[in-house]
Inverse folding.
């Protein structure tokens, strides 16, 4: 029989739509890769942090005969600030590694051929970045003031320095006689002495 022009026509150019279930599955898959990459990068940064701190403080640890428990406590309380500083970089590296892994396995091409746009593929990564931003804000607002204060106390002990004033830090400024304003950086309660004293005449 004869083949009509309609039968010989090319298939439609559009790709089939992906079901909601598959989209959710894709989101979980991409987020799973991102999570693994983020944990991998974070573990590398943590190792680097431990090495840097150990090298910088090894002389003080030996000279002041600091117990290992004190050094371990300092690392524990100092790590949150280090993680806060590096969250943007770690998130960026995790996103780049996730996209690179998807592209290397041709999964981006497969998703695009199934009708998934590049913006939709990036959606779970954007959500993950927003979650990291919220986590960073909560870390800075809730945890860092206390952990930084404790880390400074332990670092002062490691270096053999007098303890700093951490409570009522605004009281480092005080008025004196003859319209003088005093500022001090450190206050040693044991000897009742101040360090880093500056006097301003008003």
């Amino acid at each position: 029989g004869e083949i009509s022009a309609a039968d010989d026509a090319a298939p439609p150019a559009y790709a089939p739509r992906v079901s909601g279930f598959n989209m959710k599955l894709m989101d979980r898959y991409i987020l799973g890769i991102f999570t693994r990459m983020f944990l991998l990068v974070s573990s590398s940064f943590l190792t680097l942090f431990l090495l840097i701190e150990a090298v910088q403080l090894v002389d003080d640890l030996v000279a002041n005969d600091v117990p290992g428990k004190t050094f371990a406590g300092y690392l524990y309380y100092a790590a949150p600030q280090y993680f806060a500083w590096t969250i943007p970089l770690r998130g960026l590296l995790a996103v780049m590694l996730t996209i690179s892994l998807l592209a290397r396995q041709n999964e981006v091409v497969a998703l695009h051929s199934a009708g998934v746009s590049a913006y939709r593929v990036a959606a779970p990564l954007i959500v993950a970045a927003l979650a990291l931003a919220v986590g960073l804000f909560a870390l800075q607002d809730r945890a860092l003031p206390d952990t930084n204060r404790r880390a400074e106390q332990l670092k002062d002990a490691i270096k053999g320095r007098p303890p700093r004033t951490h409570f009522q830090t605004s009281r480092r400024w005080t008025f004196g006689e003859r319209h003088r304003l005093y500022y001090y950086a450190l206050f040693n309660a044991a000897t009742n002495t101040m360090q880093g004293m500056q006097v301003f005449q008003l």
Remarks:
- Residues 10-21 have pLDDT under 50 and may be disordered.
- The chain has four helices and five strands.
